[in-house]
């Protein structure tokens, strides 16, 4: 690890001021950042430890929703009684990721900001436009098994690796952000960016901005499902995952919020998929139509071509689950 | 004021170099070499310790971040004469071969018992709420952050199962 200065931020404004500098990174759980620092993918001159700023509470909101502090750990979130009861897709998504040890340390804010596990990004001897703009993308025509099939660019085909944010996207959660210019809220669905020509920009955080919380809307009835397909049964990133909030009323879909992991540089939410399902009775034909819409612009890069049919089948399985429950 | 960390009940000053991981602090500065460095990237679990009652990978956290924290390592769980229940069970069930992963396995399993006691669900749990049924599938899922290069998994699971169920499985 390269030498760096370390300081424990006494206040949010102090942390904001420090991290406004390009050379300073905020550290919370550290499970991703310290790993990247050991690999010299990240070489900050200074770390601002934000762990003691508060923001660790999980509390009810006035309208029946739930606010997750950005510094609450993934474990605290997944095992919280209200998350388990009202937002099971979120508990399931968190529990499907990483290991107990990592979830115990990883924070909600850090989880949103985690970096891709693309092998070219994490190996400083390889080209990567995200890590070293202009150096090229090793994954295109390279080892691309985990890589994206939607929203890619000729600069980058990396995926956002997390599970939690996929569930937050399906639930319509909002990220609360604080910075020198004040506070703002951004829907989780708009928080992460597509790579385009600037793959090093992964989310909408401006320099000095820090996530303070995540707000879940009031719970909806219906079925919540998180289905993750991976290469081993535990401790592996998603090849594809589906977070679904589904409801059938009189035999027809009255709610169909779907987000997908492992497919893109961000949790993938295509509103046209839900729109195609709403008001329709479940059927194989309908599920195929939803998959057609979702995968209309999908493009494989050789090693990850399998993700296109795999996504179709996984979506099918999730949607079919709602009818099985009703039967 | 010097920043301090408690390790197995003894207070120690924290290192000055912020780069020192909690793992290296325990092994190099304190000489507590029971905690092992396997991958140093949070993938193998050999460095698992218990901080404020919670199990974490000590390789992926800086010692400097732990002012005031209370750490338990394998050295704090039992002694050769008075092993903890899990230490005894690992011996009885032959829950290791080379033994390198064992301190991490036992620290991890020690915290696992506490997590089961308060019914934290896992990816293997049928229901998110209510009492967690202690099955081998649950134990395997909850121990997936601890790799064993010798492949002693069957015996590791058997040892944990015996302690978790009080021998009633």
Automatic annotation (TrEMBL), chain A:
GO molecular function, one example?
A: FAD binding
The answer, when asked if DNA-binding is one of the entry's keywords, is: no
**FAD-binding PCMH-type domain boundaries:** 1-221
A family per Pfam: CO_deh_flav_C
Q: Which UniProt keywords apply?
A: FAD, Flavoprotein
UniProt superkingdom: Bacteria
Q: Which PANTHER family match?
A: ALDEHYDE OXIDOREDUCTASE FAD-BINDING SUBUNIT PAOB, XANTHINE DEHYDROGENASE SUBUNIT C-RELATED
Task: Output this protein's name.
Answer: Xanthine dehydrogenase family protein subunit M
The source organism is: Qipengyuania vulgaris
